Structures are given as C-alpha cells and as structure tokens.
Amino acid sequence: MCDSTSNFYSENLCSATGITAIFSCPGRFEELADRPCSGMTGRSLEYILEKILFNGKRLNRSLVGINNAWSKVEFFAKTNRSEADDFEILNSSNIDRLKNELKNTKIAIAFGDKALLALNAVKNAGRSDLHIVNAIHLSPRRINTCIKKDVFGNVLKKGAKGNFKKRLSVVANDIKRASGGLFV
Predict the structure, then answer these.
(1) Is the pLDDT of residue 3 over 60?
(2) Residue 79 maps to which CATH number?
(3) Can you tell me the distance from the alpha carbon of 17 to that of 31, in angstroms, rounded to the nearest whole number?
(4) Structural domain of residue 96, as residue ranges?
(5) What is the pTM of this model?
(6) Is residue 2 included in any domain, yes or no?
(7) Helix segments in the chain, DSSP class H
(8) 156 contacts: CB under 8 Å, gap ≥ 6
C-alpha cells in the first residue's frame, strides 16, 4: 500500500509512472477548488501532458503525481506574497516532508525556480536516484513573457489567436528535450 502524504494540495503521488509535477505552492485557485494545480496552471499542465509520451503512453493528469515545493497556500490577498522564500523552502522540515512525499517518484518535473530549488535539495538529502527535469513555471505571465517563438521558430505576433497554446507546446518540447530521452 502506498501512503503518500498528509499534504492536502498534492495528488496521485503513487502513480504507476513514478512521475511527479512539482510547483511552487498552492495558491488562490487551489484553495478555492480544494485541489492541487487548479485554475489556468492546472489547465496548462493538462495541455502540456497531452503532448508528452512516456513508455509509449500519452501522459495525463491521472498518470502523474502533483505536489509543491511549499505545502502552504500563498497568495497576496491572504498572505501578502505569492510563494515561500528560499529559506522556508530549504528548511529541513520542509525538505524532509517533500522527500517523504516523493518516495515513489522516479522523475520529477520542476515547474519554476522554487520547485527546482526544492528538488535539488531533496536530491542532495539522499535521493540521488531522482531524475529532475527543469521547466518554466506555468503562470500565464511567465509563459507569455518568456516564450516569443513557436515550436517552428516563428515569432508569435502579439495578441494573435492561439498564441498561448503555441507557447505551451514550446514548454512541452522543452520538457522532452530536458528529460534526456525519457519523454518523447
């Protein structure tokens, strides 16, 4: 039996694929939905997963775990910030929590700098077998400001219909490349 977590804002940490998507922390939409990775970030994750194959299977939300570098809900109207600081992320009790929650994870996709920071700390705390795939955070602001060309190298024209999905396809391709052949 897989007893994965007492963290409310995680799911499916005992997935058969051993893949977990790691985000910074739960926010306003997660709190409203009582579910991890909700709102636009959740829809973006689902779109990206559909573009990735692992062991011949197209990924989807039911095949991957979801967790956060920081388990507490953070958003400006509630906590006057949008995520934990590095000191909180790297606190030994937080890293121990994440290490325990990721005990069944073989491949972790770090969506953003805080997720990558936490996963590297978990790896250094005894999970040298953990394969970390780095990706940008899936917030619309980050996606829209960082990705200026589609997967074919064409410049995305400001305001053009379909740009956001084209940008998410770029993220999916970047994840495939960063996986070292684990994802296609």
Answers:
(1) no
(2) 3.40.470.10
(3) 27
(4) 19-178
(5) 0.92
(6) no
(7) 28-33, 39-49, 76-79, 86-90, 92-101, 113-124, 140-146, 163-178
(8) 147, 148, 149, 150, 163, 166, 167
